[in-house]
Amino acid sequence: TNAGHLPFYLLPVEEITYEHEVAAVKDDLKTNDTAAAAAKIQEYLDKQNNVPLNIAITGASGAGKSTFINALRGLSDDDERAAPTGVTETTVEVKEYSHPNYPNVRFWDLPGVGTPNFPSDTYLERVGFEKFDFFIIISASRFTENDMNLAKEIQKMKKKFYFVRARIDNDKNAEKRKKDCSEEKTLEKIRQDCIGRQGIKSPQVFLVSSFELHLYDFSLLHETLERDLPAHKRDALLFAMPNINLEIINKKKEAFQSKIKYWAVIDYVAGFGLDKPSLQRFSASSGVPYTELLNVLKSPLAAVKMTKDLLLKVLSQLTSTGALMALEEGSRWIPLIGIPLAMSLSFTTTYRALNYFLTELADDAQRVFKKALGLNTSV
């Protein structure tokens, strides 16, 4: 069968359009075939949730690769699932670390280029470069000749690379001891000092603190990665990103909103990092007690075990208080707990329910973020 005539849920995920989804599901709902509509929605969600994103992290010994990976995964260095860190080289082989909530997003901790087991001339071949979507080259000081040569080889392979200068908070604190210290001048000096431009086309250096991702250039790094990735991989990156600023939280809300009828409420909770394990990890990495994070939550769906009975109870309460329209006749689907759940809800009520849950959870994510920074938690 020609790919142009395949049902949307059998197409490669990068070829699926919103029009594909809507047309196919509407056809089934018009004929009251909710089971077929549910199956197609689930097929689509499975494809979306399994879009692979492979991120390679490389750099010299002691550059902070493992700490950076742990920060991206929302883990403290002492978490049992964290990449091992230390003052000596702890990465002696290619090691894969999946995101706790999104196992399709994988971070690969690569040994430093130019080590005895990974010499420069065969490095990319040895680490399996073809499987990576892009490379992040990390340094804790000036980038080395090996780093530059690696960047050139990555360019030759038509892959993207990004220079990240880690441990920037240490350098800033050292500069503070000097007279007439200016943070802006200090950061620009570090940016200019840490890379030579010979042979590299427009190298951009992102200054990052793995312990304070909301500071410096991490937001700019995320925006750059998002812009450079193929469209079908951008949501995978976005949802895996920690909530390091209000803009990322709003972007997640917009991404869910754009296809609100297809994402399940449980996806909202995980995407905003409001499930219990994610909040516990955030508590450990931010130093804010877990109970204090719980105290700012408003949604009854945050930090709880998601069940059909809980969702029905919340829907019933919303209806009785007038937050939603009264339940109406006519079977419709509503994706609530990971699979479409047939309920007697009109389309309008379904949309309002999902939109209500999405807004509440996005507001909670903002409150948690503000609490961690010691800000006023009102939204």
Describe this structure in words.
The protein is α/β, with parallel strands linked by helices and 379 residues long. Helices cover 45% and strands 10% of the residues. It is built from 15 helices and eight strands. The strands form two sheets. Strands 2-3-1-4-5-6 form a six-stranded mixed sheet, sandwiched between helices. The protein has a two-stranded antiparallel ribbon with strand order 7-8. The radius of gyration is 23 Å and the shape is globular.
Key terms:
6-stranded mixed sheet; 10% strand; 379 residues; alpha/beta; single chain; 8 strands; globular; two-stranded antiparallel sheet
Listing every helix as H and every strand as E from the N terminus to the C terminus, the arrangement reads: HHEHEEHEHEHHEHHHHHHHEEH
The rounded Rg comes to 23 Å
Strand fraction equals 5-15%
Q: Strands of the biggest beta sheet: in what spatial order?
A: 2-3-1-4-5-6
The count of β-strands is: 8
In whole angstroms, how far apart are the ends? 51 Å
How much helical structure, as a percent, in the residues? 40-55%
Q: What characteristic shape results from the CA principal axes? A: globular
Mean pLDDT: 79
What is the number of helices?
Answer: 15
User: What class do helices, strands and sheet pairing give?
Assistant: alpha/beta
Oligomer: single chain
Major β-sheet profile: 6 strands, mixed
Low-confidence stretches: 1-19, 325-334, 336-344
